[in-house]
């Protein structure tokens, strides 16, 4: 199946580049409320699934034992920009469990946001594993192990007790088998499993509604989503899509990006979960896609709809600040009748 | 027309992302030697066309008047990384015409290659217009104006004498009309025109062969291509695709990248021009596409073919250096019978 073109990049009046993709919105029962393109194709959720991967942290009692509030739980669900607040928060999470940066197995990388990278380089520092966008998630993994008395070393490996708990959570929430046939290694070295896009949407509808989840899991799911929505800076950072989108409607919409053009969302008040994947892996397209879907979901609230549409349909400027084009969702997407 | 998938990104054994695109190879007469996908679609060549944009610099006599050798001419055709050698060379080109950085109208940006950016930030410097990847091209424009006694200010604007000369060169070499209907503004603020992909390939076949070009233009074209092939570091930089590909067969193959997934090439000894465009604008895919096409063109030279194929089909590593997947051209592309 060839997915439709959902986002176009214009230079002047001419389309310069095109992004294909698929979109699915489900309710807590997994009923498809809306879809475009192939929603059965196995898709690596990558970092989009971090909130589900953080369930054992809450369910195990580790989050309570270490006194984690919204900011720490948001960090456990985050792909953060490695800004000073993120780095210090990750260090603090580890310290509460008697650990430090040396326990992290995610590797180090320079911050991906250019202003953050430049500030770090100018300061004369080098990035550590605390700057890794996944450091909050990994700190959460380590805290879970520590609280449960499980060996921390090797927590990131396939088959470790921690990754078995994470896999069980992902299977139960998304309803998709997580098999070795569709297992790969993520950027931060943990296993990642490709699942049908519709299951990813269903997983986030379930995170929001708790449908068919055990009561403790449903409660933990909602607590994590509420934390992310309450502290969106700690889910991403300055000028990042996840942060800006969640700030548009505090407490009412959850979103999370994943590498290679994935984005998920949930609208708890409507009990909906959303998953989008840009075929070619482009973040710029996935951002336009999730914002457009949210705009249609909130079509009865003109101000919020307009903010979301403006986010999705953006002018692009060159090095001299001259507007040279726009990145725009196509009619196939903007005319979606979702809500 | 839906273009075929030409490059796949695997994570483990599963395809994570897919890139569609089109490819065309022509001879100097414009005869299509090989093609895949839509080769009529208007395509902005972006920086891929810089060697053609540099023709007035040579034809006007400016390059000789200012004593430009291979490195300066390569810089005029370059999208360089803003490494110290690029910056000093651009400054020197301007100085020979009695100008300095303040004459550049391309704007400033931080180097796009992370190690170069980090080194600059650590040094406490800020990027200037000399660091702009287009500074060599703009220095060439300014030298042309200066040599011809044309007002330098405004040289980058649509309708300026310099941009009229550049447009005339692009029209004559590619054989495609350059009209306002398909005109946009490039990253460095000069006009850019979308033309059919086949004309872009034909343009580079003509640059290599001189077919149907006036003798002075044919000579200037070959001088620019020879300069780029002789000084490939000045066309791009450390670990950049253009530099590495041209270094594989010194003097025998020319390549140049353009933003939004464009790549052009030429093989002078065979009189062939090549143009590829990845639909979604991804550089990683355009690099795999051009290298694969070149590998097929050089299929009778096992060592060179193998180097090109290895460049096209690359392992990807995560922050811990673990190989997690590959980016691979599809069979549709690797089985191309070009030569």
Give an account of the 3D structure.
Chains A, B: It comes from Phyllobacterium pellucidum. Chains A, B: Pfam families: Asparaginase_II. Chains A, B: This is Asparaginase. The structure is a homodimer of 339-residue chains. With 339 residues, chain A is an alpha+beta fold. Chain A has a single domain, classed as Beta-lactamase. Chain A is 40% helix and 19% strand. Chain A contains 14 helices and 12 strands. Chain A has helices spanning 50-53, 55-59, 62-65, 70-76, 84-96, 114-122, 135-148, 161-174, 197-209, 215-230, 241-248, 283-297, 302-312, 331-334; strands spanning 5-11, 14-27, 32-36, 42-43, 183-185, 191-193, 195-196, 254-258, 262-267, 272-278, 314-317, 323-329. In chain A, the strands form 3 sheets. In chain A, strands 1, 2, 3, 8, 9, 10, 11 and 12 form an 8-stranded antiparallel sheet that branches. Chain A has a two-stranded antiparallel ribbon with strand order 4-7. The radius of gyration of chain A is 19 Å and the shape is globular. The first copy, chain A, starts with a strand and ends in a 5-residue tail after the last helix. Chains A and B meet through strand 2, helix 6 and strand 5 of A and strand 2, helix 6 and strand 5 of B.
């Amino acid at each position: 199946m060839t997915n439709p073109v959902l986002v176009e990049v214009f230079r002047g009046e001419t389309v310069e580049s095109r992004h294909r993709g698929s979109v699915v919105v489900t309710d807590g029962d997994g009923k498809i409320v809306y879809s475009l393109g192939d929603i059965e194709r196995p898709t690596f959720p990558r970092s989009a699934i971090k909130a589900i991967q953080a369930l054992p942290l809450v369910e195990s009692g580790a989050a309570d034992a270490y006194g984690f509030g919204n900011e720490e739980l948001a960090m456990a669900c985050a792909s953060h920009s490695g800004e000073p607040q993120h780095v210090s928060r990750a260090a603090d999470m580890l310290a509460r469990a008697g650990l430090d940066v040396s326990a992290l197995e995610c590797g180090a990388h320079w911050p991906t946001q250019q202003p953050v990278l430049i500030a770090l380089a100018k300061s004369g520092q080098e990035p550590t594993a605390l700057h890794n966008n996944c450091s909050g998630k990994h700190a959460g993994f380590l805290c879970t192990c520590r609280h449960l008395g499980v060996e921390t070393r090797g927590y990131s490996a396939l088959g470790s007790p921690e990754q078995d708990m994470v896999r069980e959570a992902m299977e139960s929430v998304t309803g998709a088998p997580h098999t070795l046939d569709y297992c790969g290694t993520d950027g931060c070295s943990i296993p990642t499993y490709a699942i049908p896009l519709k299951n990813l949407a269903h997983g986030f509808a379930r995170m929001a509604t708790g449908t068919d989840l055990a009561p403790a899991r449903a409660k933990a799911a909602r607590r994590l989503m509420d934390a992310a929505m309450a502290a969106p800076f700690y889910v991403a950072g300055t000028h990042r899509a996840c942060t800006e989108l969640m700030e548009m409607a505090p407490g009412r919409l959850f979103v999370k990006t994943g590498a290679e053009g994935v984005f998920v969302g949930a609208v708890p008040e409507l009990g909906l979960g959303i998953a989008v994947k840009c075929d070619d892996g482009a973040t710029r397209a996935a951002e336009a896609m999730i914002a457009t879907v949210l705009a249609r979901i909130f079509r009865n609230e003109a101000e919020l709809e307009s903010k979301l549409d403006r986010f999705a349909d953006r002018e692009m400027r060159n090095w001299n600040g001259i507007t040279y084009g726009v990145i725009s969702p196509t009619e196939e997407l903007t005319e979606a009748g979702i809500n």
